[in-house]
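Troubleshooting: if your tokenizer reports a length mismatch, compare your output against this known-good record of 74 residues.
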Amino acid sequence: MTYEEYLDEVTTLLTELYDLTDATAIKYVMRAQASDFFTLHDDDPAMRTQERAMQDAKSIFENRNKSKPELYKK
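Known-good structure output:
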């Protein structure tokens, strides 16, 4: 999937797994993106899998209220 499709998938998973609104899920994904969480995904298409999207959605949700970007585990 493209990088944009991957971000959409992570956003969708956040709404489905954690019962978030679209706006909230988008906010979390944008915050993670601003913290360079998805940098490697942009460079390596092999990272953009459904399984990885599930892992990333979980990581983003678990770290959603933490202020330090380095706490996002890749």
